[in-house]
Design goal:
about 220 residues, alpha+beta, Arc Repressor Mutant, subunit A, Umud Fragment, subunit A, 2 domains, 10-stranded mixed beta sheet, two-stranded antiparallel sheet, 5 helices, 12 strands, about 25% helix, elongated
Length: about 220
């Protein structure tokens, strides 16, 4: 955080960036006043001067709405709209394979950047890389990234990361709890058979798929 810039000035900068993005031109002094609860345009002008001195904006005082974000200002505004999610490992979309523990194998410090506007609430979200092709009819292919919401319960038909406790295996499938308590893990590939688990205590839902990021060819 730039210690030269006050909280009020950050609010002004964020508003200028958001307004410009939505409208295609910068806000007026009075619009900045209204949006940031500042009582006078002279106070806004003073704070804009400080932002200009710090390199966050460029002003043309001879032009109406003569205000634009400098590179540092655009970087600041974009940073607030981007979230980094950890890529926690690989999950098998195929026949489940053994993994060393009940958690997904870590892949170091790898992350994926996504727009906060697309994701909404990012609490409890993480990413996994897909291995295998059992979910191709659900448009999930080998090498794709799935964005997961960490939760232990899902609705029938939702795509979930499922840990099979007894087998020491994890898989990505459509989850169904059938009458009598039997669990069906359904692939989205007509060449593959579902997995049936008669004892629900053997199954632990690790998360629900909320988004798929396609692998670039």
């Amino acid at each position: 955080m730039d210690e030269r810039i006050s909280e009020k000035q950050w609010r002004i900068l964020d508003f200028v960036g958001e307004y410009t993005r939505e409208n295609g031109y910068p806000p007026s002094m009075r619009e900045i006043c209204s949006a940031t609860d500042i009582s006078s345009t002279s106070v806004v002008s003073y704070n804009l001067d400080r932002l200009e001195e710090a390199g966050y904006i460029v002003r043309d005082r001879e032009v109406s709405r003569g205000l634009r974000l400098a590179l540092a200002g655009r970087s600041r505004v974009m940073a607030d709209r981007v979230v980094q999610l950890p890529v926690l490992g690989r999950i098998v979309a195929g026949e489940p394979v053994p993994v060393p523990s009940s958690d997904f194998a870590l892949m170091g410090d790898e992350t994926i950047e996504l727009s906060r506007e697309i994701l909404g609430d990012v609490e409890e979200l993480y990413a996994l890389e897909v291995e295998g092709n059992s979910m191709v009819d659900a448009l999930v292919n080998d090498g794709d990234i799935v964005i997961m919401h960490h939760q232990s319960r899902v609705e029938n038909g939702e795509m979930a990361a499922v840990w099979l406790r007894g087998e020491g295996e994890v898989t990505l499938k459509h989850f169904y709890q059938e009458p009598g308590g039997r669990i069906r893990l359904q692939p989205a590939n007509p060449t593959m058979d579902p997995i049936y688990i008669d004892d629900p205590s053997r199954v632990e839902v690790q998360g629900r798929v909320v988004m798929v990021i396609r692998k670039l060819a």
